[in-house]
Amino acid sequence: MTYALAWPLQEAVFQMLSGDSDLMTLVSGIYDAAPQQVSDAAPEGLYVTIGDEVAEDWSTVTDEGALHTVLISVHAPRRGFSDAKQAAGKISDLLLTSTMTPSRGRVIQTRFVDARTVRAENDALRRIDLRFRVTLEDTA
Predict the structure, then answer these.
(1) Staple 84 to which of 15, 36, 76, 123, CB 3.0 to 4.6 Å?
(2) What is the pLDDT of residues 25-63, one digit of tens each?
(3) Which residues does 49 contact at the CB level (< 8 Å), separation at least 6?
């Protein structure tokens, strides 16, 4: 097993999401951490974070590989889930139907694991956490 595929996978996910004009009309940006705020006010508009991941061995006798479970979150700074669910649906469609091309490794399969909606900070903010399993074969 190798963890060397983690960064190329994150880059590929970022490029796929940020390169989709339909998704980018729904969200203000794609980040690997929540954007810094100049005040205590919530950010305007939806935004997406590529978050935590778990990597497991997926090697065979002849090939090195890894299974990455990736968390992608849609953050909504306003009450209601409708806009966030539209963005989450688009993200799911992109990851499951588009071809990701990491700079190292080859994506064998991408599967949807689950989604969870969360109400935070006195019921004022919304978040949808999506988890996907991406199976990668190392090509280095």
Answers:
(1) 76
(2) 999 999 988 776 544 444 568 999 998 999 999 988 888
(3) 30, 31, 32, 33, 34, 72, 73, 75
